[in-house]
Specification:
Elements (H helix, E strand, L loop, with lengths): L5 E5 L9 H15 L3 E7 L1 H4 L10 E5 L16 H17 L5 H16 L5 E5 L4 H12 L4 E7 L10 H15 L4 E4 L2 H8 L7 E4 L12 H10 L4 E6 L9 H9 L7 E6 L15 E4 L4 H9 L3 E5 L12 H8 L3 E4 L5 H9 L2 E4 L4 H17 L7 H5 L3 H26 L1
Parallel strand pairs: 1-2, 1-4, 2-3, 4-5, 5-6, 6-7, 8-9, 8-11, 9-10, 11-12, 12-13
Helix pairs in contact: 1-15, 4-5, 9-13
Length: 422
């Protein structure tokens, strides 16, 4: 019999500085170990070679090189926009022509997982999307070794992702249906996304919401916050950390800020890490700064030493999108201004945690009202009455605790079924 606590986490190359996915998977590996699991990780060498990222030292990691004929191009945040457009187009063509552009890596990962299964060295397999390689490797091995407990981490949308062509969507839908009906458990970051995957189910798979989270000590104490304001020279510092994708822009926010700038002496707006700059109204040009992306550690420090944190999410048909940064924002203890859909999960969480204000991203008057309210609270030294229980429930340890409980639930169900057959 395989060890009852032997687990393998499969992921492909993820950029920890820019994607919360890497922090999510690292959280799986780190905290499952705390809950008594013997964890191994299968990943790509690119994770270390290109991004300098390492898992916790005493977690066994097996890495495989990419040796494909053609691979997607990496896009740097400071590249010329013409070069960026060419690379984006090139990558789109690759993904349209080849469903799994990392097929060589997928094959190597599959072979290694199969050896572990043959040698009874694994009981639980957790694969994470995107890209499709980890799910494809786990799917093939699970069909050969049905005794494995497989949990498929869909994370975000698959076939419902807005950028897909109809052909890519069709291929992704086929894979999603096969994964859902082969895996023992399916997890995703929000309940609306879970509902999307339930449509594919025709069996007894267990679905569970496992949100992203934060991974550092929660909110600063009041005394430290007060000292921070004085040390900053009485600047009211608004920050946004991250990139702008698709239809997300800060144009409406900048327009709102411009309209009330005279009522905000000492205001400063910093955008940390966006891949493009936007036109800034003349009267606030000196107060607005665009800065290069920073490491995860530096990003969390900047969050904690802000006075207002911005969250942008586009309105539209997509449901269940939190944005990974919302959890680090919550843990910082700094007020959040969410320019987000009012009827979706991010707005609900900010309200439930009493962590700030939410407003429609195009509502100029509403944005101005929220900024002025935050500024008045800052002037008076008032701190948000954050619900710490809500915040603490989103530490990655607590979310992985839910994953560990799912693993045990599936394992216990399989054992009960075996006893009934006997």
């Amino acid at each position: 019999m395989p060890s009852e606590n032997a687990a393998v986490v499969i992921l492909h190359c993820l950029h920890p500085g820019a994607r919360s996915a890497a922090q999510r998977v690292n959280g799986f590996a780190t905290y499952l170990r705390e809950f008594g699991y013997n964890v191994k990780v299968i990943e790509s060498n690119n994770t270390v070679r290109e991004f300098g990222y390492h898992f916790v030292d005493d977690i066994e990691v097996v890495s495989f090189d990419e040796k494909g004929i053609v691979s997607p191009l990496q896009i740097a945040s400071n590249e010329n926009w013409i070069i960026r457009k060419i690379k984006v187009l090139f990558n789109r063509l690759i993904y349209m022509a080849c469903f799994d552009v990392h097929s060589h890596w997928t094959k190597r990962a599959e072979e290694h997982l199969r050896k572990l299964a043959e040698n009874r060295q694994v009981k639980f397999v957790i694969s994470t999307f995107a890209p499709v390689g980890p799910h494809r490797a786990a799917l093939k091995v699970r069909k050969i070794f049905p005794e494995l407990v497989w949990i498929a981490d869909m994370r975000d949308e698959m076939s419902a992702a807005p950028h897909l062509t109809w052909f890519e969507r069709w291929r992704m839908r086929r894979l999603a249906r096969e994964v859902v009906n082969t895996a023992d458990g399916v997890v995703s970051v929000s309940k609306p996304l879970i509902e999307q995957f339930k449509v594919f189910s025709s069996g007894d798979v267990i679905f569970r919401e496992i949100r992203n989270g934060y991974n550092y000590t929660s909110a600063l104490p009041v005394s430290e916050k007060g000292a921070r304001k004085l040390d900053a020279g009485n600047e009211f510092c608004i920050r946004y950390l991250g990139s702008f994708y698709g239809s997300i822009t800060p144009v409406a926010f900048l327009s709102a800020l411009s309209g009330i700038a005279e009522r905000l002496p000492g205001v400063r707006m910093e955008f940390i890490g966006p891949q493009k700059k936007f036109s800034v109204p003349d009267n606030i040009r000196e107060a607005v700064e665009f800065r290069e992306a920073v490491t995860y550690r530096d990003a969390t420090t900047l969050m904690q030493h802000s006075d207002l944190l911005l969250l942008f999410l586009p309105s539209g048909r997509r449901k269940g999108v939190f944005s990974g940064k919302i959890f680090e924002y919550l843990a910082s203890g700094v007020p959040i201004l969410g320019l987000v859909p009012q009827d979706d999960v991010a707005a609900d969480l900010i309200r439930k945690a009493r962590a700030g204000d939410v407003v429609d991203g195009e509502d100029i008057a509403g944005i101005q009202e929220c900024i002025l309210r935050a500024y008045a609270r800052w002037q008076s030294g008032e701190l948000p009455d954050v619900d710490r229980l809500v915040v603490e429930a989103h530490h990655r340890r607590e979310q992985v605790r839910r994953l560990a409980a799912l693993m045990q639930e599936i394992s216990a169900g399989i054992q009960a079924s075996d006893r009934e057959r006997k």
